[in-house]
Task: inverse folding
């Protein structure tokens, strides 16, 4: 399968798929993604943007 992909893809596309093919196939086996981690990171980023400039770091961490 990898050899057929190599013939159809070139350069960076082939290298990317070759490096990540186990993770790509794992999705189809287990239907697991990193969506929950990405969602949590987005919430932290939004929270940090809301409290930008807060002087009391302990208050910030307590709300986090």
Result:
């Amino acid at each position: 399968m990898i050899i057929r992909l190599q013939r159809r893809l070139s350069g960076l596309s082939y290298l990317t798929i070759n490096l990540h093919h186990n993770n790509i196939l794992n999705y189809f086996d287990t239907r697991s993604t990193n969506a929950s981690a990405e969602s949590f990171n987005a919430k932290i980023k939004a929270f940090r943007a809301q409290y930008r400039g807060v002087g009391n770091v302990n208050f910030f961490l307590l709300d986090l």
